[in-house]
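Cont'd.
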Amino acid sequence: MLVIYILGVTEMDVRPADILVMKKNHPCGSKSMYVIRAGMDFKLRCTGCGREFMVPRNKIERHIKQICRDTPENEKK
Ligand SMILES: [Zn+2]
């Protein structure tokens, strides 16, 4: 097994306002989802078509390719 998982070793640190880049495209063609709420269930909004939906954490985590966060500087201060 040569595949190394960078994400998925520990529980993902997904926070509201993060952008999730998914492994699979949404039917509208967009790959990124905006996180409205994170908890047991994630509330996501597709950045392509604007559709919102709830997804259980354990179901969505394996489909996440990358987490983008716009404001990392706020935390280091
Ligand atoms: Zn979409």
